Amino acid sequence: LSFAIANVFLAYFIGSDDLLKYIFEGPANHLDIIVKLLIFSGVFFFVFAWFREQVCIIACPYGRLQGVLLDDNSVVVAYNYKRGEAENGRSKFRKGELRAEKAYGDCIDCKQCVKVCPTGIDIRNGTQLECINCTACIDACDVIMENVGFEKGLISYYSENNIAKGEKFLFNTRIKIYVALFTFMFGALITLLLLRSDIEATILKIPGQMFTTTDTSVTNVYTFTLVNKTVNDYRNLNIKLLSVKGDIKVVGNLVSLEKESLKEGTIFITIDKANLKTDREALKIGIFQGTKLIETTTTNFPSPLNLK
Questions:
Q1: pTM, entire model
Q2: Which residue among 21, 79, 82, 254 sits deepest, i.e. has the most Cβ atoms within 10 Å of its Cβ?
């Protein structure tokens, strides 16, 4: 299981296609990948075999996040201390004992809730950082309550105000703010995913490289990066100026962009001086597949101050 998870984890970073290729080509040809795979497998095995619940207590941020968000109206897995402790606290179960007359609570101190807790806490001590709300204590307690003839629900989903004051769940202002914020963030994420372009293009001028001029034109050298975010190949690609008349020459051959791949290269942009309005012209550049515009990007075009 650790080895399988390590493969999935590694595929997240290097890509599933590359990982499968490395596996079929054999470990001898990719020792660095195999070493990383074994390291990840060892880490996961260590977590599953020994570290276990300590991950929840020490490493996992879930408890810290919940600690910030919780208040007395938050519904969590909780022990009903009003019912469980009553006036004289807990007491072991004795058949035929009149617990109500002695003012004992319904908790018979069997400690089953502690035994089944994966992080080893005692839920009867209140809400704690280590609680992961797995509800194992609820199930264990309900079985015991049913066996001794008491009402189930001594441990269940409660808020502090629900236990202490008997108040029902309230959709208060704080919760409304949280819902609004999460709705906004979720909506923003979906919007970004829907508006995300299939191709990402970046065109940057080579640092330290001066422009070259002739009597009628100015030329600058740029590097370009194209990223294909899809599982489809793009063929017959070309780069064109959109905002100004000019010429773009690609060094090498920009014809295709494979799926889930990146392509880098160099281009020369030449523009007639008559078409330039400033010494740092803002250019809009389009990436085309045949005649179809699939992405746009911008860059600056430095030129002599005296254009004419």
A1: 0.58
A2: 79
Tokens of 79: 């022990």
**How far apart (Å, rounded) are the C-alpha atoms in residues 279 and 266?**
22
Maximum distance among all Cα pairs of the chain, rounded to whole angstroms: 110
Structure tokens that stand for 248 in this block: 């773009």
**Complete domains list, the chain, with CATH:** 2-51 (no CATH), 72-164 (no CATH), 199-302 (2.60.40.10)
Residue 133 buriedness (CB in 10 A; 0-12 / 13-18 / 19+): middle
- Residues in Cβ contact with 233 at an 8 Å cutoff, skipping those fewer than 6 apart: 256, 257, 258, 259
User: The tokens 């089944």 sit on which residue?
Assistant: 116
Tokens of 106: 């319904």
Q: What is the DSSP string of 79-134?
A: E-HHHHHBTT------TT--TTTTTB-S-----HHHHH-TT---GGG---TT----
What does the alpha-carbon distance between residue 291 and residue 308 come to, in Å, rounded to a whole number? 34
Rounded-to-integer distance, Cα 72 and Cα 279, Å: 63
Give the pLDDT of the chain (308 residues) as one tens digit per residue.
898 988 888 888 887 878 888 888 887 888 888 888 899 899 999 988 888 878 877 887 877 777 788 888 889 999 999 999 988 888 898 888 888 888 999 999 999 999 999 888 999 999 888 888 899 999 999 999 999 999 999 999 999 999 999 888 878 888 899 899 999 999 999 999 888 888 999 999 998 889 999 989 999 999 999 999 988 899 989 999 999 999 999 998 777 898 888 999 999 999 999 999 988 999 999 999 989 999 999 999 999 866 55
Among residues 270, 205, 265, the alpha carbon closest in space to that of 238 is found at 265
